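User: I'm putting together a teaching handout on how multi-component assemblies are represented. Below are the sequence lines for each component of a complex, exactly as they appear in our records. Could you produce the 3D structure of the whole assembly as structure tokens, so the students can see both representations side by side? Please keep the chain order the same as the input.
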Amino acid sequence: MTDMEQQLFTTGLVPVVTIQDAGDAKGLGTALVRGGIPVAEITFRTPAAADGIRTMAQEVPEVLVGAGTVINRDLAKQAIQAGARFIVSPGFNPRVVDYCREQNVPVIPGINNPGGIEAALEAGLTTLKFFPAEASGGAAMIKALAAPFPQVRFMPTGGISPKNLGDYAKIPSILAIGGSWMVPGKAVESRSWDEIAGLCREARTSLQG
Ligand code: 3PG
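Assistant: Of course. Below is the structure of the complete assembly, with chains in the same order as your input.
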């Protein structure tokens, strides 16, 4: 496991963040630290993503800041230039994977079937996002995929919430569980940092319990 993977494994959770205003990144990063989850996957779903990554990485350096929804090479470049320490994609895009490896930045592409896993293994990757987790068969599907692919560490995201977190928490081949439920968009926009810190703490507690 790389240092980055070890950090994700130790925390066990990856908040998937969409921010509208990069000015919120410092407050959000601080709330994540207070909530016991010093990790963020800031998604390229808004124009604020790159500046948000840059701000969080600089202002709250204890947070491991990565980029999500990186669907092409240009976004990967923007993310890495902004200081993203890992890159996550919803699918497996060889151009994104090649670029990240050239830049020595860990990349976690998304897959949800055996063919996708084989393509990723061919590219030398064993840590993969399982997306969209719930719609693709959820915890049962990960258990089924882990049988022929014991070398793969999965990061499931998509449709995970406090209701089904426990189903995923028990699976040994899972590196960390991702989701937006810990950082609701409305809470970010209204700068409800105590609420976000509380959601993170609850998630940590249910994962450990
Ligand atoms: C992702 O990009 O990982 C997902 O959109 C997060 O899914 P969620 O909003 O259902 O947690």
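A couple of points students might notice: The pocket of 3-phosphoglyceric acid is lined by residues 16, 43, 68-69, 131, 157-160, 178-181 (CB under 6 Å). The mean pLDDT is 97.
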